[in-house]
Amino acid sequence: MKENKKEMFIVGKRPVLEALRASYPVRVVVFDKGKSHDAVMKNIFRLAKKQNVQILYRDESWFRRRFHQLNPQGVVGVGDVFTYADLEDLKIKKNSVILILDRIQDPQNLGAIIRSAECAGVSGIIIPDRNAASVNETVVSISSGAVFHTKIVRLANLSQAVDYLKRKNVWIVGTVPNGDVPYFKIDYKNVPFAVIIGNEGEGIREGLIKKCDYVVTLPMRGHVNSLNASVACGIMLFRIVEDKLKNGEY
Predict the structure, then answer these.
(1) Residue 96: which CATH number?
(2) DSSP structure class, residue 11
(3) What are the pLDDT digits (tens) for 127-173?
(4) How far are the Cα atoms of 2, 108, 164 from residue 194, in angstroms, in the given order?
(5) pLDDT tens digits, 203-249
(6) Pairwise CA distance, residues 59 & 23, whole Å
(7) Do residues 233 and 99 lie in contact, with contact meaning Cβ atoms separated by under 8 Å?
(8) CA-CA distance, 126 to 154, in Å (whole number)?
(9) Can you name the residues that pair with 8 across neighbouring β-strands?
(10) What is the model's pTM?
(11) Same domain? 35 vs 101
(12) Which pLDDT score is estimated for 192?
């Protein structure tokens, strides 16, 4: 599923490089003609030429004027708007880890979560199509291009997605700020898992909590009794990866 926009700007060295590495539909790459090319820039140039992508050059003022809220680092790509995957596109195996994001509204949080998830090797990320951030230029930039290597599914009903995963023998783990079961007490081996991360302020909706096989918490020892959603997500994902690595599932 695509957004109504006709194009998307891919801002920064790493996002542009990853878009090209993933053979994402990039039509134009614009370089700052005043900047020297380091190894990453040379790689971008090489891949753009190889893929017959149009190459343009602009002054630094053009980058500053158009992309002052992001950090273009001397290069911007212009490509198709982000294409979401279908739920059926997720390949579920014994070692699969899937991420469900319940109304993550901050694009910077979403970008950071996608970056952590891709590093953890998730099979896919499921987000709602309302009251939540979608994949835009900010998310692409903050994710460092991880969006181009990640299957992201956008649905109207997360509850139906959970039901679908359960039919595929996926175990569902919800995260809450104040729970009785620490996240490290669960055995994450031998079966696929889906982790639900809730809204930055309100957490996971009650209807989704009721569908979870486990509800876990990250114990806090400090005075501030809350973690950023992207940090909590990273902790959860790599705890599951640790169990599966020790079990020889990768």
Answers:
(1) 3.40.1280.10
(2) E
(3) 999 999 999 999 999 999 999 999 999 999 999 999 999 999 999 99
(4) 25, 22, 11
(5) 999 999 999 999 999 988 887 767 789 999 999 999 999 999 999 99
(6) 27
(7) yes
(8) 6
(9) 79
(10) 0.93
(11) no
(12) 98
DSSP for 36-72? Answer: PP-HHHHHHHHHHHHTT-EEEEE-HHHHHHHSTTS--
Reading across the β-sheet that carries 75-79, which strands appear in turn?
8-11, 75-79, 26-32, 54-58
User: Which residues are 154's β-sheet partners?
Assistant: 127
Domain count, the chain: 2
Task: Let me know if residue 2 belongs to a domain.
Answer: no
Residues 111 and 167 in one domain: yes
Residue type, 59: D
How far, in Å, CA of 116 to CA of 113, rounded? 5
Mark 169-195 as b/e (b = at least 16 C-beta within 10 Å).
ebbbbbbbeebeeebeebebeeebbbb
Range of the domain at 117: 87-246
Mean pLDDT of 35-50: 94
Give the list of residues 6+ apart from residue 132 with CB closer than 8 angstroms, or none: 101, 103, 104, 105, 110
